[in-house]
Design goal:
Structural class: mainly beta
Shape: globular
Mean pLDDT: 87
Largest sheet: 8 strands, antiparallel, barrel
Strand order of the largest sheet: 1-2-3-4-5-6-7-8
CATH topology: Porin
Radius of gyration: 15 Å
Length: about 150
């Protein structure tokens, strides 16, 4: 995980761009999940991300859908890089069912030369459902194509 974060931050240092875009669609890797992602920037300050997909381990048949609300803050020292925080919820279903409620914080970077957005986030939260209740800290890495750029 350290290598992924380091590669992400180094990439951000070598490219510049504007951090604002309207819509982006792409992929999201979250722990053992492979998810599709759609992100909408409602303003410079607020974003909503929806996602859905399946368990990438393949041991059981599981699917996940969810959404996040994010508040964004520009990082003036690095053009096109911003950090965000917010809250999200998800539903896991298939061989068993769970509901997830979590906080989120992370980094969001947009490239100027190409229509690409990358984000990395940390998501501490609670799972409720089959197998009892559980506290987990999840990580996610997303790569999105910026629509209309």
């Amino acid at each position: 995980m350290i290598k992924i974060v380091s590669a992400f931050l180094l990439t951000c240092c070598f490219f510049s761009a504007t951090a604002q875009y309207d819509d982006a669609v792409g992929i999201r890797f979250e722990d053992d999940w492979f998810l599709g992602s759609y992100k909408i920037n409602m303003s410079n300050r607020m974003s909503v991300e929806g996602f859905g997909g399946f368990d990438a381990q393949g041991f059981v048949s599981l699917y996940k859908v969810g959404a996040e609300f994010q508040l964004n803050t520009e990082i003036p020292e690095v053009e096109s890089l911003r950090w965000f925080y917010g809250a999200g919820a998800g539903l896991v279903f298939g061989d068993f069912s769970r509901v997830q409620a979590y906080g989120t914080s992370g980094l969001d970077y947009t490239f100027a030369e190409i229509p690409l957005n990358l984000s990395f986030e940390l998501m501490p939260g609670m799972y409720f459902g089959d197998f009892g209740n559980d506290f987990e800290i999840d990580f996610a890495l997303s790569a999105r194509y910026i629509l209309g750029q």
